[in-house]
Amino acid sequence: xLYKQLNYHAKQTYKALSDNYNSIVKVYPQIIDHxxxxxxxxxxxxxxxxxxxxxxxxxxxxxxxxxxHTIDKASPNGRAIDPFLMxxxxxxxxxxxxxxxxxxxxxxxxxxxxGTDGGGSVLAPAMALNLYGFISPLLPLQKNVQNKxxxxxxxxTPSAGLIAKDFSVINKTLPIxxxxxxxxxxxFNPLNILEINNSLDDIVLPHSMSITNTELDTxxxxxxxxxxxxxxxxxxxxxxxxxxxxxxxxxxxSIIGHFDTCTHTFQQQGNKGLIRVVNMVxxxxxxxxxxxxxxxxxxxxxxxxxxxxxxxxxxxxxxxHKDELIDSYFGIS
Length: 333
Fold this sequence. Notes:
Elements: H1 2-18, E1 24-27, E2 42-47, H2 58-61, E3 66-72, E4 81-86, E5 93-95, H3 99-106, E6 112-117, H4 123-128, E7 132-136, E8 148-149, E9 155-156, E10 159-164, H5 167-176, E11 191-196, E12 209-214, H6 222-232, E13 238-243, H7 254-257, H8 261-268, E14 284-289, E15 296-301, H9 305-314, H10 324-330
Parallel strand pairs: 2-3, 2-6, 11-12, 11-13
Antiparallel strand pairs: 1-3, 4-5, 6-10, 7-10, 7-14, 8-9, 13-15, 14-15
């Protein structure tokens, strides 16, 4: 077992050092010395931002199974697209701002990415590469967090977020980060779900769930979506929206979109919906990839351990899609 682990992790580090997509700031190859024969280990990438540091993620690293492997490039000034990095699949500009963090998970360099999300900066790049993304203000992964202002003039406090190719990796972090309430049982009580624009057409949920469908223009301005989402979270346990394809038909970037009607339309065609405002209402959310490129479900809930407990169970109702061509072309062989 140890030989297989050493071989796999050595390939991860070799790929990181090669840095073919220019997504890495720094590599820590010496972490391979920590591997022993009685554990499974997960390599971690950390977004290059002042609100994240080795010190700030010490709780996760103290588990001894998560090892810091890379510091990842991020888009300048928290921009929603990264003009210096390329989406490995589409070759368009990579979605930001946790751009390198998502890319290094997608490329197999890391098993887990840690980024920050102000207005979609974790959820959007995760979705752009068909990865899982999770954000919550309850994640104890930041230090010295200060309020910021979005390009459309909204003040917010960024949350930490997690990105992984397999949801099981994110799930392993939550007990370590003390986000799960061990005294509750999931999905035994009826849950009220608000379904946006028939997002659950192909999903079978337990009969105990009460599902209400509503129509919503998820590409509306943040100033419209924020009060709407705040109000709905008071009445529903979960809000589920299917969004994307992210940054494929257009680029969801307000720097481009603010000029005129034409550029605003191009921005909207980046198809970033509620993922832009989840953090701005201090909510918790999980994005789940589908079998379509850069398209996935976003499940939004209030930020408390009981809701997160049920959210983890709710994920099991959604299909897991594996793409052998993508894995063989971009992954670790």
